[in-house]
Design goal:
about 230 residues; alpha/beta; Rossmann fold; 2 domains; six-stranded parallel β-sheet; two-stranded antiparallel ribbon; 10 helices
Length: about 230
């Protein structure tokens, strides 16, 4: 157990993209370049995911049917071609980009070791699936986490909080003793708040309250009492 802002924390749930690594303008540009031959499908996927945020479809089958169905309608492509792009091109491209252009956050391995040493349960909750493949691309060990959960496999999109509550139940830990770490207040923050969990949102610079830089977050989680960090 660790103490964060005066609260006892027994589990930490990490978002993936933008949290375990930085995904700024360069990353998004590279992603576009790699998908330029399929830009119509690529942009329809991004838009539909954003339009459907917060929906709970109940099952992964319903999730896929709704997302891929709307993509097919929007692009005029067949459902088969949409599925082929996602499962054979998008997923592979995602991992290639992570491996070639991205690195884990500074001292992330040290943080994992510290949390394990203090018997903190850890999980990932990401909108996208294939979490193991993405961790491998970033060269982050699978055993850093006790549980991997995706919106795809649960049939939801953030800020639905159902998967967070499922993680709490799996760990046998009350939501108020859990901490969610993400990079978006409108998805990770709302999902955590609706689940009754504590949360921090990562930004380039700390801005008080729940908005912290990665360096500041490390100090908070690892109980470093110095206040020299500003970025």
């Amino acid at each position: 157990m660790i103490e964060v802002a005066g609260k006892k924390i027994e589990a930490v749930v990490f978002d993936f993209d933008g949290t375990l690594y930085e995904n700024g303008f360069f990353f998004k540009f590279i992603f576009l370049v790699y998908n330029i031959l399929h830009f119509k499908i690529f942009f329809s996927h991004r838009k539909i995911i954003n339009d459907l945020r917060g929906n709970d479809f109940g099952t992964p089958e319903n999730y896929s049917r709704r997302v891929f169905g709307e993509m097919a309608a929007k692009t005029g492509k067949s459902l088969e071609s949409i599925q082929n792009w996602y499962y054979k091109i998008f997923k592979r491209t995602f991992c290639v980009i992570l491996k070639k252009y991205c690195r884990p956050r500074k001292n992330f391995n040290d943080l994992c070791i510290y949390l394990k040493k203090n018997q903190i349960r850890t999980a990932i909750f990401s909108d996208y699936g294939f979490i193991g493949s993405r961790l491998e691309a970033l060269e982050i060990e699978l055993d850093c986490f006790d549980l991997l959960v995706s919106g795809e496999t649960e049939g939801v999109l953030k800020p639905s909080s159902r998967p967070l509550l499922k993680i709490a139940k799996h760990f046998g830990i009350e939501p108020e003793r859990m901490l969610v770490i993400g990079d978006r207040a409108d998805t990770d923050g709302i999902a955590a708040a609706n689940a009754g969990m504590n949360y921090y949102i990562i930004r380039k610079r700390s801005a008080g309250g729940n908005i912290v830089s990665w360096n500041r977050l490390l100090k908070i989680l690892m109980n470093d009492k110095t206040d020299k960090e500003t970025a």
